[in-house]
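hiii, so i know i said id send this last week but things got crazy w the move. better late than never?? heres the sequnce for the chain we talked about at the cafe, plus the structure i predicted for it. fair warning i was half asleep when i ran it
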Amino acid sequence: MQPIISVRQLGKTYASGFQALKRIDLDIRHGEIFALLGPNGAGKTTLISIICGIVNPSEGSVIADGHDVVRDYRAARAKIGLVPQELTTDAFETVWNTVSFSRGLFGRSANPAHIEKVLKDLSLWGKKDSKLMTLSGGMKRRVMIAKALSHEPQILFLDEPTAGVDVELRRDMWAMVRALRATGVTIILTTHYIDEAEEMADRIGVINKGELILVEEKAELMNKLGRKKLTLQLQGPLESIPAALSGYPLELSADGNQLVYTFDAQGEHTGIDVLLRRLGEAGIDFKDLKTSQSSLEDIFVNLVRERA
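okay and structure toks below
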């Protein structure tokens, strides 16, 4: 099956000479949740803006559901819903009119039943006749999402959708994302909440300094780059790691009561058996041990640090 979004050799250089994107190649699959991670200024919003036709590329091409986003802008944009970071709404208009008008902008005929469903799914039905200026920040964010869904897009971009919003909206938001994906909608999100990407995404992309440095299935990424830690709870505190153990990747906790050994879980030999024997030879006893897997956040921080 052809990808629903195909990005080829995409670059963006601004008049100032700043190169925001450097020859990006990326395919987004039909019906997946793709999380794009990167530090501030990495190029996430620029990439999304080009795909959505808001910013013109300096080079390269983007095909969205079979339509070139530059040459066939209207057809491509009609396939896409965008929830931007900024809250941009007409303060004096009602929720119902705002969302209905947004549908009309994409040439879709009126469909009150669809608008009603979207508002109810986002817990906005009770506010449908309220003016936007009277709504809280969280409610305005819900209206932005409703606008993006008003024309029934097949591709939905969520640019930091839950930044600064309450826990209830975050919960509703991710329930809605799952429901949309179940109907075949492709979802691309950027987020600073890496735990959300870890929970929701099928694939992860990492962008840094305008370069796409990694695209991987989430599970494979965790297996490839995730490392495990063995934490030993000691019988008594140590002042320092004995010289006999200096060749091991060990960290001693500030209070001296824990030793942490980091190892590659995919390696042929973890070295744990030898380490435990050496601890015994050094007269270091422990009363408990546990292992833990690196989180996606650990992996992300390490990847960005390596490319710094």
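btw The mean pLDDT is 87. thought thatd interest u
miss u guys!!
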